[in-house]
Write a structure and sequence with these properties.
The complex is a heterotrimer of chains A (253), B (548) and C (381). Chain A is of the alpha/beta class. Helix content of chain A is 36%, strand content 23%. Chain A has helices spanning 51-58, 82-88, 105-112, 119-123, 129-141, 157-171, 187-200, 213-219, 237-242, 244-251, and strands at 13-22, 25-35, 40-44, 66-71, 75-76, 90-93, 175-179, 205-209, 223-227, 230-235. Chain B contains 21 helices and seven strands. In chain B, the strands form two sheets. Chain B has a five-stranded antiparallel β-sheet with strand order 4-3-2-1-5. Chain B has a two-stranded antiparallel sheet with strand order 6-7. The model of chain B is unreliable at 1-7, 22-31 and 542-548 (pLDDT under 50). Chain C has one domain (8-368). Helix content of chain C is 72%, strand content 2%. Chain C has helices at residues 2-12, 14-35, 47-73, 80-99, 112-116, 132-156, 161-180, 206-232, 234-244, 246-252, 256-282, 292-305, 311-330, 332-348, 353-372, and strands spanning 192-193, 197-198, 201-202, 284-285. The longest helix of chain C is centred in the N-terminal third of the chain and has 27 residues, at 47-73. Chain C starts with a helix and ends in a 9-residue tail after the last helix. Classes of the chains: A alpha/beta (253), B alpha+beta (548), C mainly alpha (381). At the B-C interface, helix 14, helix 19 and helix 21 of B face helix 6, helix 7, helix 12 and helix 14 of C. The structure holds adenosine-5'-diphosphate and magnesium ion. The site of adenosine-5'-diphosphate has 10 residues of chain A, from helix 1.
Chain lengths: 253, 548, 381
């Protein structure tokens, strides 16, 4: 799909000492972690741990109070806005699936298709046959062939999740941030999603936030545990599950 | 002070009744014969006898004397031809309305030919002026004495000199003494003795008064031929020094006055906007009919006055709850019938309520006519508080400021301290949770909207005292109100307060530089730019729920 | 499924084509009936009617401009009257300069009101307006520039929703106050009026009136086609995505503020053109055109017609204005009740406007037919 960048950075994502507070409440508290190119990383943590806030900070929706966020070692993400960051190659799937409700599945995917995002380019844009095939491939991949001409608003929750994943694929970012993709999916779909994410990692770097332990297990990747805005533990799923602090947080009062 | 501080009307009425009851009996027996006789002497046709009669009246110690003297000076004193009763007359339709000076009894209307004026000549009038002043200067109330002194400053004349000297010697109240000295000084400024003039200027030092300021300016001015109005160099130097002080004082009080004006304009904005701060700020409902809620309040005031024409003084007090109820009910009706169906669709709400505003305007036009209605200003709202010679504050503005603050703090208390306020906050912050805890969210919505609208109605009562009451009254406030709420930060009453006062004051200070219309435009442009810089306003409430 | 059918129907734009055909017919037939049929014939169309319809066409173009931003991009501008008025003023300035020496004071250059104010020279911003092409350029530039500056500030700071609506309203309100001032140099209270001719044709002549009428119709058709092109391009789909999920569009990588700015300026320019065509037909432009209520009225045209359909805006503008002409003539007191009622009814009961109602009815009929044929679940062609 996309050519592998000539210069391979040491870290695709580098988060260091990030703190973000809302009215004095620290949603992120001195958070640090890194993601290597091609890595697949799962982030777990109880509700309110700051997972979504972390994504907001990476994608430019929020500016951190203090701390550094670097993309590909050199780009300071805190200095850019959402659209710029997206165009640099960071894609995001929201916790609450958001697709464009009054556009069809096809049109949703067309919008997400990587390419020039300028105003006048869009005005005179024509889909090439190649792009059409690519969209159709993705539709096939996410299993929405039947729904190709349906409006986004007419899809079920799970279908919206898939459409959003499809959009993310079409956007073809270097780094994918995926917030709770398995919510609202059947077990089978969950499995498929996990497989899909595993497949695209390697070529892309993927950060997945999830609650569902089965899903995490299926991802079979390093896990970072977030708690009250900082990293509580890091390691394989078995390691963190054996960690006393993690047990305390999950099972304790 | 031009006016004595007024007690509440009912206290005064009660006191008056009491005094009347006593005076009818005691007064009539003890002093009436003397007063009655002396007053009767005024009706003589000879000027010289009348002059004597006036002297005799002046010598009386009776509180009815002063009104007689003043009426005499103004040419309002008459006697009735039929029974020679001395009366004070005021113009009425095709004649006069007369009051007996002895009993204070209202004798009703009479024709012009039924009464004869008790005429005065120049000498008498001159004397009368002095006597009236002297009478006031020995009044027991220091405020009256000070006002009398202030009046004398405006009309300097050497014949007042003796009574002023006497008054200064007897005066114990420092503030009054100072005023008396200035009154003397403005007379002495014409003296041909340099010492007198020098002393006069020294007496004027630091006493805020427009007349002395003008006189001093006149004094130090150089004429075209190079001469000065004041020949003495020494006096001029002193005058310049004093003048400088006075001018600094004047600038300061001018600033205070502008500030006061600005704050009162801000209070009007605050009153208009604070209801909106609830409906828009708390509920997120764009109520374009908010202005019409204000208008309804103003019309309620008008109707209340129609219903109680004899109790105009009390009408505003009655109108406040009435307007709250009328506008509040209307608000509840609107909420239940229209807005309820449009929650979460702010743009649609905006359009629907705009339609309602058109309907309400037209309704008022149909019922009351498209013309402006006049709402009467009660006495206690008119006039002004003369703080000093440079600064006077009009009572209506003063009351508006106080009233606006009362409304604001009342509202803050209601929201913060009452159970209803608690429910309201619960519903706005988490509707589902509130509902599951048994709060009737629909009821809370209706009441909240009613509260915001009712407060707009109260604002209408206040506005009826400042502007014309017409069908378009609301329109002129709606844009301003929205800007105030948005500027202050949606959801923050405190922000609304700061924004309203800030804008009121800013407008007042930009106005002299740019003119009223341009000032308004500049302020609008400023707010537009400000909102673009800080879309959440001055006092933004942070948090997720405002993102909508 | 019906949603697919509707989509196809929308894309083929049947309604739009019908509306355009009607407009085309009207601007061909009515002029002929006006100019060629003798006045005593029943088929004669009076110049009054031509003028009235010409006005409606301008309003329709204005409504189209509003629908472009509101219906497709979710920007509810309560200040679009300002762009209309600016275009109108630019045209008015040209018409003013055309009066030349025929004014009451007979001054060769200065318009009457300037002579009246004792001005001795033309203000710099009146230069060039004696040239038609320059004036027409200004018809586009003046509203476009205001929209650009305003939009740039607003969209860059992400002022959205009702906040944006309120500041657009404040904008037109401020402009109204400004234009009321005599020393602004636009005729103050009275505005610009007493026009004589345009491009040498007398404004009183029937042929000129017909010409302006046809020009308005052509402008409307071209405006429609332009808007249609925009909304059916990929840019149009970006606009819809901004309307439905603004922040999502950002995360896909679209610079939302640029897109908004583009349609906002385009819409303002269309509104300016509408204003410029309107002024010679009604013979006056004054600051009242800036009044906030005018701008809000445009919204009800669009809402009633059906927002997000383009041709719905045209239908709405004509319907409401016809109603206004009729009721203000027949029952003047009732009109404001009606207009107010329209606002309430169209938001409560007609969220999709007249066009939406027609469509629902069609959907239902198609479904019944499908049912009758026993082919449930099959897509209706
Ligand atoms: N915009 C905001 N304003 C105030 N508090 C916020 C905001 N965003 C997040 N929070 C708070 O920050 C904490 C972390 O939230 P979030 O990142 O959504 O958690 P998670 O995704 O891990 O469940 C929560 O307590 C949440 O209430
Ligand atoms: Mg989350």
């Amino acid at each position: 799909m996309k050519m592998i960048p000539k210069h391979i950075p040491q870290h695709i994502l580098y988060v260091d000492g990030v703190t973000k507070s809302f009215d004095g409440f620290k949603a992120l508290n001195d958070l640090s972690f890194t993601v290597k190119p091609g890595e697949l990383r799962a982030i777990i943590g109880p509700n309110g741990a700051g997972k979504t806030t972390m994504m907001d900070v990476i994608t430019g929706k929020l500016k951190p109070d203090v701390g550094d966020v670097f993309f590909r070692d050199s780009v300071d993400l805190t200095k850019h806005d959402e659209a710029e960051i997206a165009n640099m190659g960071i894609g995001r799937k929201f916790q609450k699936p958001t697709v464009i409700e009054s556009l069809t599945v096809f049109q949703n995917l067309e919008l997400a298709l990587s390419g020039n995002r300028g105003v006048f380019k869009s005005l005179f844009h024509k889909l090439s046959g190649e792009q059409r095939t690519q969209i159709d491939e993705v539709i096939e991949l996410v299993g929405l062939t039947e729904k190709r001409q349906e409006l986004g608003g007419a899809l079920s929750h799970g279908q919206k999740q898939w459409l959003e994943i499809g959009m993310l694929l079409n956007q073809d970012p270097d780094l994918l941030l995926v917030d709770e993709p398995a919510a609202g999916m059947t077990d089978h779909e969950t499995e498929l999603t996990a497989k899909l994410l595993r497949d695209i990692s390697g070529e892309h770097s993927v950060v997945v936030v999830e609650h569902d332990m089965e899903f995490i297990k299926a991802l079979d990747c390093p896990v970072t545990v977030l708690h009250e805005g900082y990293v509580l533990a890091e390691g394989t799923l078995e390691q963190v599950q054996a960690d006393d602090k993690v047990i305390e947080v999950y099972l304790g009062r | 002070m031009t006016r004595q501080p007024k007690r509440a009307w009912w206290v005064r009425a009660w006191l008056a009744l009491l005094i009347l009851a006593c005076s009818q009996t005691l007064w009539a027996q003890q002093q009436a014969p003397d007063f009655t006789a002396k007053i009767a002497d005024l009706t003589t046709s000879s000027f010289s006898k009348r002059a004597k009669a006036i002297e005799a009246v002046v010598a009386l110690d009776d509180e009815r004397v002063l009104p007689v003297l003043e009426a005499l000076l103004e040419g309002d004193l008459y006697y009735r031809k039929s029974d020679d009763r001395v009366v004070i007359a005021v113009d009425a339709e095709s004649g006069y309305r007369i009051t007996d000076v002895i009993s204070g009894e209202d004798l009703g209307a009479v024709g012009k030919r039924d009464v004869k004026k008790i005429a005065t000549n120049n000498r008498m009038r001159k004397n009368l002026r002095v006597q009236i002043a002297a009478y006031k200067l020995v009044n027991k109330n220091p405020d009256v004495r000070r006002t009398a002194a202030g009046d004398l400053i405006k009309t300097p004349s050497p014949e007042f000199l003796p009574i002023l000297q006497k008054a200064i010697a007897n005066e114990e109240e420092p503030a009054v003494r100072e005023a008396l000295k200035v009154a003397r000084a403005v007379i002495l400024l014409d003296s041909d003795q340099e010492v007198d003039r020098l002393q006069a200027i020294k007496d004027m030092d630091g006493y805020p008064n427009k007349y002395t300021l003008a006189m001093l300016k006149q004094l130090v001015r150089q004429n075209d031929d190079g001469s000065y109005n004041e020949p003495s160099e020494l006096v001029r130097e002193e005058a310049i020094a004093v003048l400088k002080g006075l001018e600094a004082q004047e600038t300061w009080y001018k600033f205070v006055e502008d500030l006061f004006f600005g704050l009162s304009a801000g209070s009007v904005l605050l009153l208009a906007a604070v209801g909106l701060a609830i409906t828009f700020g708390v509920m997120g409902v764009i109520n374009m009919a908010h202005g019409e809620m204000i208008m309804l309040g103003a019309y309620t005031t008008y109707v209340v006055q129609l219903l109680m024409p004899n109790l105009i003084e009390a009408s505003l007090i009655v109108a406040i709850p009435a307007a709250f109820v009328v506008s509040g009910l209307m608000g509840i009706i609107i909420e239940r019938t229209v807005i309820r169906h449009l929650y979460g669709r702010p743009l649609e709400t905006l359009l629907a309520t705009f339609g309602i505003s058109l309907i309400l305007q037209q309704l008022v036009r149909t019922i009351f006519s498209p013309l402006n209605r006049s709402v009467i200003t009660p006495d206690w709202m008119s006039g002004s508080l003369q703080v000093n010679g440079f600064l006077s504050l009009t009572y209506n503005r003063l009351y508006i400021i106080v009233f606006a603050l009362l409304v604001l703090f009342g509202l803050m208390l209601l929201l913060k301290r009452s159970f209803f306020g608690l429910q309201m906050r619960a519903v706005t912050q988490n509707r589902a949770m509130a509902s599951s805890m048994g709060i009737r969210t629909g009821w809370v919505d209706a009441m909240t909207f009613g509260l915001g609208s009712g407060i707009a109605g109260i604002a209408g009562v206040a506005l009826s005292q400042l502007t014309n009451v017409g069908p378009n009254l609301g329109q002129s406030y709606i844009i301003d109100s929205f800007l105030v709420v948005v500027f202050g930060g949606v959801g923050s009453l405190w922000g609304t307060f700061v924004a309203a006062m800030g804008l009121g004051v800013a407008n007042k200070f930009v106005e002299p530089m740019a003119g009223a219309v341009l000032a308004k435009i500049l302020i609008l442009v400023f707010i537009i730019l400000f909102i673009q810089r800080r879309p959440r306003g001055l006092f933004a409430i942070k948090g997720r729920f405002v993102e909508g | 499924m019906t949603s697919q059918a509707r989509l196809a129907w929308l894309q083929s734009d049947v309604g739009g084509k019908r509306v355009l055909a009607i407009i085309l017919a009207v601007i061909i037939v009515l002029p002929l009936l006006n100019l060629l049929v003798p006045p005593d014939s029943v088929f004669h169309v009076s110049s009054y009617t031509i003028g009235l319809l010409g006005k409606y066409l301008c309003y329709a173009l204005l409504a189209l401009a509003v629908d472009l931003i509101w219906g497709y991009c979710g920007i509810l501008s309560l200040g679009h009257g300002a762009f209309f008025a600016l275009g109108g003023y630019a045209m008015g300035m040209y018409l003013m300069r055309q009066i030349g020496e025929r004014g009451v004071y007979g001054h060769p250059v200065l318009p009457d009101f300037m002579v009246f104010l004792n001005w001795d020279a033309l203000p710099w911003y009146w230069y060039g307006f004696d040239n038609f092409y320059f004036a027409m350029l200004m018809v586009l530039v003046a509203p476009g520039l205001l929209a650009f500056v305003f939009g740039w500030l607003a969209f860059r700071s992400r002022v959205t929703g009702v906040y944006l609506s309120i500041i657009t309203q404040a904008m037109t309100y401020a402009l109204m106050l400004a234009f009321f001032r005599n020393d602004m140099g636009f005729g103050g209270n009275n505005g610009l009026t007493d026009f004589k001719d345009i491009l040498g044709f007398s404004l009183q002549a029937d042929t000129t009136k017909v010409g302006l009428f046809v020009a308005s119709g052509v402008a409307l058709i071209l405006g429609y086609l332009l808007c249609r092109y925009v909304v059916s391009s990929k840019l149009g789909r970006v606009l819809i995505s901004i309307r439905d999920a603004e922040s999502r569009s950002r995360f896909i990588g679209y610079r939302v503020e640029h897109f908004k700015l583009f349609v906002f300026v385009l819409s303002a320019v269309l509104a300016g053109v509408a204003g410029a065509l309107y002024v010679p037909q009604v013979g006056i432009i004054n600051p009242g055109e800036f009044s906030p209520i005018n701008s809000i009225e445009i919204i009800v045209w669009v809402a009633l017609g059906g927002r997000g359909f383009l041709y719905g805006a045209i239908i709405g503008a004509v319907l409401v204005n016809y109603g206004k002409t009729f009721f203000t003539g027949a029952f003047p007191e009732v009109w404001l009740f009606m207009l107010g009622g329209l606002f309430v009814v169209s938001t409560l009961f007609l969220p999709q406007g007249v066009v939406g109602i027609v469509q629902q009815w069609k959907d239902k009929r198609a479904e019944q037919k499908a049912h009758a044929q026993g082919k449930t679940g099959e897509a209706v062609p």
